[in-house]
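Researcher: I'm preparing a figure for a lab meeting and need a structural model of a single chain. I don't have an experimental structure, so a prediction will have to do for now. The sequence is pasted below. Please return the structure as tokens so I can convert it later.
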Amino acid sequence: MLYDDVDTVDLKAKVTAAWQDFTRALARALPTLPADVRLDLTLDPTASGTGEAIYDINVVIGSDKQMTGYAVGNANLPDGYRLDRTAVGHMIELGWSPPGVIDGSDGNFGLHAAATEGPQLAALLSRTMRDVYGAPHPAFLTYTVRPLNEAIEAAPAGPSTLATARPTPTVPEVESAGQDAVLSQAMEVASALPLADKVRTVVAALLKTEPDKLEIDEEGEIGVRAGSAMVFVKVHENPAVVDVYSPVLTEVSPDAKLYERLAQLTRRMPIGRLYCTDNTVWASVPVFGRDFQPTHLMLAVQVMMGLADELDDRLHGEFGGKRFFGEGDVPHKPASGEERTGMYL
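Model: Understood. Here is the structure written out token by token.
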């Protein structure tokens, strides 16, 4: 679907591996949940830009350890975010019963699963979030474990192993084992700091260095080298956005073929976009600063480092131009009669 283009094969492998890790972790966690609790998986609307649309799945563990799942349906989604016929058909193919069929589902999809079907249920939940609800990466998911009876405490260590998914902040004593231990400790110290300081803390932890040792220019942009490419991280206060971007190629000669190529690649990227302006090809992945989530920035930086270093070589071979650290690169000179335009993507 999103990841079948040969030009993003490295990125595809990383994203696919993350979903596989998440599915395995979920399969391990489900059998450890005690009876009479509910596991909630939610696509973070702040990070995914879905606004008031909440794409979530609830799994109820009954007193007999039988599992009942509920996945949000169109009756509980606002206009513009409802599932089309293809998506509804995909839900049925995955094994969900139509809304209202399972007791208690009301306007949501439902299913029953035996206690021994943890791996199958985990795969189904993962595919629903990824393929139907459009989660680009498990780092965009949050989870909670809620007792059906207030006298029952939330589940212990099991759910904390959900790989890169994050616990919902309002639920106490549930930690995300998917985050690197160093990052977790650093963010605990930086939690009350301004956004720019949080960003520096995350990038430093990712690069295994100290914030004061980062390469930061006079405009406050953090520079990170990725092979022949350079990745920049810049904080915007109003609106609160962290821009992770790279000048993939400079001194290119834009033409219809270049714009078509960039549009094709952008459609196949799980997150971010490619565009050309001022004779420079840019790659960009924005991260929301409001309700800042360290894992989202980590994902964006990691994606951009791999993407920029891969694409600057590929696009340079096709369209010329100069890579950031490309020694001997020369600007591309269009052949006689080659179309040039002043548009940008």
